[in-house]
DNA sequence: ACTTGGCACTCGGGAACACAGAGTGCCAGA
DNA sequence: TCTGGCACTCTGTGTTCCCGAGTGCCAAGT
């Protein structure tokens, strides 16, 4: 049904269209790629490909353009992820190595991805829920007011100001801190609620109201921040790629954290890369845009995801290579720090 | 030289052009605003205004359009800042009040400004250098590795992982922490370097190498973060305002932190509002865009700045009102938390 | 000294039109 | 099954033309 040559033709069409941004015709095809046949033959193949929905023509008597289905086939079976050049790898390493805290790691990753792929980069902060407690700190700020600081093993720091129901002496705060750290150290965040359940009972009765208040804020922090944080950048690249339509929609989607998270979401197939092409993605404003995403994490578990977003007409092999490489390096950095 | 009627004409031109986005001619002017004179008279006035560079015509036989100089005059002398409606004020208050930490305050402020003005909003994080130390925390992470956490009175939290030259027992860390907090509590960040200079001497000799390492990282933190942090949003509004040219440039400028800071920078005249119109601003890519900015702070001192960025063709009175109001409310929130 | 109506002039933008060029589908022959 | 040829169909571009909004200027009016 789709013999080898037809597949080759499809591949050629995708490659040409991606690089020229113009519908590609039969003649141009045989000129550029040396398929050993004549334009007429190609036309027949094209007719077949169109029949089956892999390509389409914007109007009669124009060249062909890949459909989403065509890109899908290309990505799945006709292309290979293109590894980065040595220079690029080194650039990534040195650029990321300079980061000094989590915020900066994320920011730099965004820039890196945007620059490497010339698209919009999106990076999710390492998930709170899957990481574990490294330290809890309680800092007295004023009477009846403390700041609660939670440090995770991924370097993420959460802070909350807590208003207390009553005064509490500094040494009692210290005690509470010690108890908390003793039972929470290394504890997976998802297991924190059970773990702290009996903490009040282990304290002198007069400390319990304060402890309960602080604990409730702590739990709140975990729940609230379940909605993850996201950073993005490289929007200038959107303007460059003369986005046929909906630049507005894309920008809107980018500012809608919830949408973004869903787009990155759902881990996918081979080598951890997810590619969602045009109408495959669940947000109507993003018809015409594809997302290439990958999970990253320190060690074995996936902590969060990152990826890029660009026109369906993008260079998938290169983009996928860049995303995969960056995801790996970020994972290493996180594991090392 | 510029009698009252000419000024009225200029005002009318600005207002009409802002609302219609089309060059405004003499006839349209007399129709809409009831100046009590004929089109011919207006034409003479317009000629005078053009002569002096306040307006210009895109081409012969088109209406007039304000120049940057014209907008400047309009902002300085022909318009009044338009206060927000009661509903808007309440919306601001409730929206900002829900914020739970500094990050969220900033994020919400960005959204608020963007929504209120329908432009791109830019918010600078409260400056580190002008705030003061509320607490320093040293958290042991592993042997020879601690995390240094600095909490400022504006709620900003800075963290750094520090690799130590040698092992150090927890109680000695606690001692160092106590000493640091004792001398730094409430200390303005700019005075930290002098203040900590003699700390090593006050410690037992065996702790000094560690203390020196930690202090150097602390000082580094202060210096590095002198480059301030910035958040922005509402870029979708850019696409809506059919930006004549340079949407790309604008997006690039937005991602260039340094440029952004310079744009917000320099506090200005009346009521703390700075308006920079088109070519007045120091970045060539932003010809065609204006910036309305204001300082905000808890109490008397200006901690940082916020503002919006949009086409020179913007509704200045409304925008200025919104920026001023948001700046005030954010100040209140910061002071209160 | 301003203001006004009249008038000739200018120029951009849209509509109508023609045309070249790229591309297609199909068919008959190798 | 491939190929060359041929007729056909579009889009995009350039040309021309014309309308209308808007101007500048002048002479007359208040």
TrEMBL record, chains A, B:
Entry's family note: Belongs to the HrcA family.
One GO-annotated biological process of the protein: negative regulation of DNA-templated transcription
InterPro entries to which the protein is assigned, alphabetical: DeoR_HTH, GAF-like_dom_sf, HrcA, HrcA_C, WH-like_DNA-bd_sf, WH_DNA-bd_sf, WHTH_transcript_rep_HrcA_IDD
Cited PANTHER family: HEAT-INDUCIBLE TRANSCRIPTION REPRESSOR HRCA
Protein name: Heat-inducible transcription repressor HrcA
Ranges where the HTH deoR-type domain occurs: 34-62
Function of the molecule: Negative regulator of class I heat shock genes (grpE-dnaK-dnaJ and groELS operons). Prevents heat-shock induction of these operons.
Entry keyword Transport: no
Keyword Transcription set for record: yes
GO MF entries: DNA binding; DNA-binding transcription factor activity
Database matches in Gene3D superfamilies: 3.30.450.40, Heat-inducible transcription repressor hrca homolog, domain 3, Winged helix-like DNA-binding domain superfamily/Winged helix DNA-binding domain
Keyword set, alphabetical order: Repressor, Stress response, Transcription, Transcription regulation
Entry-linked Pfam families: HrcA (PF01628), HTH_DeoR (PF08220)
Signal sequence residues: none
Domain of life: Bacteria
Heat-inducible transcription repressor HrcA C-terminal domain mapped to chain residues: 103-320
């Amino acid at each position: 049904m789709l013999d080898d040559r037809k597949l080759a033709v499809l591949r050629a069409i995708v490659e040409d269209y991606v690089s020229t941004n113009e519908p590609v015709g039969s003649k141009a095809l045989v000129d550029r790629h040396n398929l050993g046949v004549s334009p007429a033959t190609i036309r027949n193949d094209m007719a077949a490909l169109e029949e089956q929905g892999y390509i389409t023509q914007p109007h009669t008597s124009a060249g062909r353009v890949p459909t989403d289905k065509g890109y899908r086939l290309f990505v799945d079976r006709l292309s290979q992820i293109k590894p980065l050049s040595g220079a690029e790898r080194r650039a990534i390493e040195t650029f990321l190595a300079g980061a000094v805290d989590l915020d900066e790691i994320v920011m730099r990753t965004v820039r890196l991805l945007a620059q490497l792929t010339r698209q919009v980069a999106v990076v999710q902060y390492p998930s709170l829920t899957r990481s574990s407690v490294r330290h809890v700190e309680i800092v007295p700020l004023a009477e009846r007011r403390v700041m609660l600081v939670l440090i995770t093993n991924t370097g993420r720091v959460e802070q909350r100001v807590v208003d207390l129901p009553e005064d509490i002496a500094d040494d009692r705060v210290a005690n509470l801190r010690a108890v908390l750290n003793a039972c929470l150290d290394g504890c997976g965040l998802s297991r924190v609620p059970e773990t702290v359940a009996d903490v009040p009972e282990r304290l002198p009765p007069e400390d319990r109201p304060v402890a309960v208040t602080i604990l409730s804020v702590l739990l709140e922090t975990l729940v609230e921040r379940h909605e993850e944080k996201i950073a993005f950048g490289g929007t200038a690249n959107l303007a460059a790629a003369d986005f046929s339509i909906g630049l507005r929609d894309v920008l809107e989607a980018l500012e809608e954290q919830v949408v973004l998270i869903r787009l990155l979401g759902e881990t996918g197939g081979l080598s951890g890369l997810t590619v969602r092409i045009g109408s495959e993605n669940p947000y109507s404003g993003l018809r015409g845009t594809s997302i290439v995403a990958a999970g990253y994490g320190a060690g074995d578990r996936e902590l969060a995801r990152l990826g890029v977003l660009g026109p369906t007409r993008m260079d998938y092999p290169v983009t996928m290579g860049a995303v995969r490489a960056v995801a790996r390096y970020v994972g290493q950095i996180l594991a090392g720090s």
